[in-house]
Amino acid sequence: MKHLLQQISRSGKFVAGFSIFATILLIVLIYPLVVPDPPLEIIGQGTFFEPGIYVNVYDSISAPHYTLNLDEAAEQRIASRFKAEDREAMRGWLVGSGMPESEIDIANTAQLLDQWFANFDPTTRLPGMTNADRNYYIRLNNSIQGLLSTEAAVIAQMNAETAVLEETGTVPQTAYVNVNQVANVRVLPLGTDNFGRDVLTQLVRATGVSLQIGFVAGIIATVIGLALGLVSGYVGGLVDDVIMFITNLFIVIPSFVLLILISFSIGQEQRGAITIAVVIGFTSWVWTARAVRSQVISLRNRDHVNLSKLSGHSIAHIIIRDILPYIASYVIMALILQISSGILAEAGLSILGLGPKTTDVPTLGLMMNWAMIYQAHILGKWWAYFPIIVTIALIAFSMNLMNTGLDQVFNPALRD
Amino acid sequence: MEKVILDVADLTTKYITRFGEDIYAVDHVSLRVEDGKSLGIAGESGCGKSTLALSLMGYYFPPLHYTGGEIIIDGHNISGMKPDDVRKSILGREIAYIPQAAMNALNPTQKIIHFIEDVVQAHDPTTSKQEIYTMAKALFESLGLPAEVLQKYPVELSGGMKQRTVIAISVILRPQVLIADEPSSALDVTSQKMVIKMLRNLMDNGYIKAMIFITHELPLLYNVTDDIMVMYAGQIVERASSKEAVFDPLHPYSKGLMGSIIVPEEGLRDVKLAAIPGVPPNLKNPPPGCRFAPRCKFARAACTAASVPLRELENGRSYRCILSEEELREAYAREDRQHGR
Amino acid sequence: MAAERKLCLSGKGVTKVFGLGRNKTVAVDNVDFNFYEGEVISLVGESGSGKTTLAKMLLGLINPTEGEIYFQGEKRDLSSHRKKKEYWKSIQAIFQDPFSSFNIFNKIDTVLLDCIRMRGGGGLPYEQKVAMMTEACSFVNLKFAELTNKYPFELSGGQQQRLMIARIFLLKPKILLADEPTSMIDACSRATILDMLMQLRDEIGMTPIFITHDIGLAYYVSDTVYIMEKGKFVESGSADEVILRPKGAYTKRLINDVPKIYEEWDLSTV
């Protein structure tokens, strides 16, 4: 046993897979202690806030202000508020007023502004320009003027009695606040989803739930498969025929279709995460049963089994002591695969809208489902689906890596 | 004196285990095989005889590593050549190797002629299929194999026929040396006899110039090879002509080995089978001095003091023991008297 | 002496068929045999001759498709696990490959304690069990003190086969089926194993039945030899008679094809 563990710890693949898996597991366990928010709480008013640090505007006004004189500040401010379509429109006007197109570089903010102020005349009416267009250009010009203003912003408060705005302070353009001194700052590393829920918190919780589903489904499938495989393989005869008949039936009906049908017939209200796990477990034992059976068949004619029989041991004793230990390594590997495929099956079901009911807990599949329904992939809101795909892939990858590593330890023929 | 075809001097190869330990499975082995001669290698499992067979090809792949010595085939030194060069120009042309389960190495989806085409065209890509067929047919017929075999798939042949086919394929490029490692052990006695007959045929008709035959079945070795070399724990302990080795072994280990032969012949029931107590040493750290000493009835302090060199006798025999020929014979005679024979 | 010969195992019309329809193979084809107590018997056959199937039927590990096997002249009854257990007190086996004969997860102690339990010694005090195991091990030249808490695979092939004999020593069966007991171990350990088996035979008065493909071994150890070909006995009789003066064509060929050292081995006959 000690030797076996030593061998396993030497297998690079297993160690790599295990490290990834353990990291995921640790995050799932520790994150809720650090961020105790309920994962499905709607915090954002609106959909798909981008990942980033959200600083409370009101609090930052009352936070201590510091003056920092930074050269690029003004330019960056203009550049960030100067939208691409405005630049396009400016070019249109400049070209229309007779400027050669090659001289205009809309990426160069300073040069573009110079050219604009040198040429723009609100009274000029370019050929083919409608009234609306003209008004647009005038508005654009005004807003650009506003951008360039170096005056401080005024903070005013409404006097409750006179309903007059009274100036209480100004915020110059060189004013800064220290984020640490702002009372409310929320980091949303993965932004929010379509309902305005924190994607990261939700993802961590969903990973935990999906792992639970995977474990429950994997253990159920392995236990059923192992029991049927052992009995069918060792006892043989009619028992084998009956069990194999059932197994083959399950093989002929694609288990995913079966899963969909069962899931559908349970109904939305009854579908909790564990219910789904049980359903997945009950539909995916087939391959384990077949594989265990064939292993047992090859084992049951081995001499050590014959010797055990000759020593007068009962069938139960032989199965448990002389057969099970020999296939234990195989069963562990099958379990790992079952867990990983259980997670994938849940994801598959949920994408189809047949996953656990949506009000209790998130799962990886449900998150994918929501992202898909609200068209996150079309709108380019990558943070709503990409981290989930990566998580699913990492879990499956780490488990397969562990499996291959174990395979190499248990099966010396595969060692390199 | 006949021309020496295979001349091996001080060949040493080792296995490096997964834990980085060195196992010297072939330890300073020197041997010569002359033109038209065959040499048998005998020994218990784990004595290094199969490793010697692999090492003689000059083609090493992990965990087997070359550490020293020379292999000269017909004047051509192949030790120290690059593995790729050995594979391209030595294997199959100078030296051919038949492992025990050679017959299972045939790809079941290809006809026999296909393997021959592969082998010949790898050697000379310009040879046409027609030429190869004619050549293969001639070879098979001269070796007593029906030419129809060429057009068959491996699964259509019996185990013995497959093994003989593999042997025929292995000599198609007329290698100088054939190394056969337990080529008939997996076969029934009749097929085994056919394989042996074929190997003898190859030697007698000059298809190959020298043969190394490895088996744990001593009666077989006695019937196939001119000389027998006994290996123990990676070293040669005795080399003699087959008759001498079987009926008059000198080294105590050979004596025990030959005494354990069982054949269905009159008189065997009255013979007391010899037994050697103990197990072969672990090659990770072999015992000092004579490696057989811990199991030897005649061991004395001097045996383990220093390593024992191979003694060369006048008639070409050699053995590795500190006792002289006379002392050994006397000790064996005393033993026989004790057992009342 | 011939008059006193007592039957230990006999069979009438014993047949074993595997598979159905087109896949049907007759492994053992309607064989009759009478094995007598005190004789050393060998069943000789090439692979596929059905000798191992017959051995398994004799052991009661598989049931014959047809025919009856008689134990000490009485019809054998293996209808329940209890009856089988009783039968296996009288008949035991040694298998070909020592490395696969032991459960690699069981310690040597477990293997030997099983035997004591089977002989009804399960309730004995541990010291007494140790004494029995020590005795059994010393019979086969092994030291129990060194083996305790070890696993069988830590021993060499020869040692494992000796452990197997120690097992038989504890079980004291009336019949021992030795299925190629020496074919997987080195020649120099072969004599030790055979000597121990013969010594054990004298000690506990069992009847050894060797199952082997090695006609030389059969000749060396046995009194009576049965030659099997394609599920049938083609020749039987005393070892000298069958092997030195074979009558049947198959036996002749078999003996002819084994390499010889004293006589010339005739290669021209194949």
In short:
The complex is a heterotrimer of chains A (416), B (341) and C (270). With 416 residues, chain A is mainly alpha-helical.
Order of helices and strands of chain B: EEEHEEHEHHHEHEHEEHHHEEH
CATH architecture descriptor text of the largest domain in chain A? Orthogonal Bundle
Please state the overall shape of chain A, judged from the principal axes of the Cα atoms. elongated
The assembly state of the depicted protein chains is heterotrimer
- Tell me the number of strands of chain B: 12
- Name the helicity range of chain B: 25-40%
User: What is the CATH T-level topology of the largest domain in chain A?
Assistant: MetI-like fold
**Count of DSSP H/I helices of chain A:** 17
Structural class of chain B: alpha/beta
In CATH, the homologous superfamily of chain B goes by the name P-loop containing nucleotide triphosphate hydrolases
DSSP strand content of chain B: 15-25%
Low-confidence stretches of chain B are none
The helix fraction of chain A, in percent, is: 55-70%
Report mean pLDDT of chain B, rounded to a whole number: 89
Low-confidence stretches of chain A: none
Termini separation of chain B (Å)?
A: 41 Å
Structural domain tally of chain B = 1
Average pLDDT reading of chain A: 87
Number of helices of chain B: 11
Placed side by side, the strands forming the largest sheet of chain B appear as: 6-7-8-3-9-10-12-11
Query: Regarding CATH, which class of chain B?
Result: Alpha Beta
What are the key terms here?
heterotrimer; A: 416 residues; mainly alpha; MetI-like fold; 3 domains; two-stranded antiparallel sheet; 17 helices; 63% helix; B: 341 residues; alpha/beta; Rossmann fold; 11 helices
Annotate the secondary structure layout:
The complex is a heterotrimer of chains A (416), B (341) and C (270).
Chain A lengths: L1 H9 L1 H23 L17 E4 L1 H6 L2 E3 L5 H9 L2 H13 L12 H11 L11 H18 L4 E6 L6 E7 L3 E3 L7 E4 L10 H37 L1 H16 L2 H12 L6 H11 L2 H15 L2 H8 L4 H37 L12 H10 L2 H4 L6 H25 L6
Antiparallel strand pairs in A: 1-6, 2-5, 3-4
Helix pairs in contact in A: 2-8, 2-17, 5-6, 8-9, 8-11, 8-12, 8-14, 8-15, 9-12, 10-11, 12-14, 13-14, 14-15, 14-17, 15-17
Chain B lengths: L3 E13 L5 E13 L2 E6 L6 H8 L7 E10 L2 E2 L5 H8 L4 E4 L13 H12 L5 H14 L16 H12 L6 E5 L7 H16 L5 E5 L3 H7 L2 E6 L2 E7 H6 L4 H8 L41 H5 L5 E2 L5 E2 L5 H14 L3
Parallel strand pairs in B: 3-8, 3-9, 6-7, 7-8
Antiparallel strand pairs in B: 1-2, 1-4, 4-5, 9-10, 10-12, 11-12
Chain C lengths: L6 E12 L6 E12 L4 E5 L5 H9 L6 E6 L2 E2 L5 H8 L2 E4 L3 H4 L6 H14 L4 H14 L4 H4 L9 H15 L3 E5 L7 H18 L2 E6 L2 H7 L2 E6 L2 E7 H6 L4 H8 L14
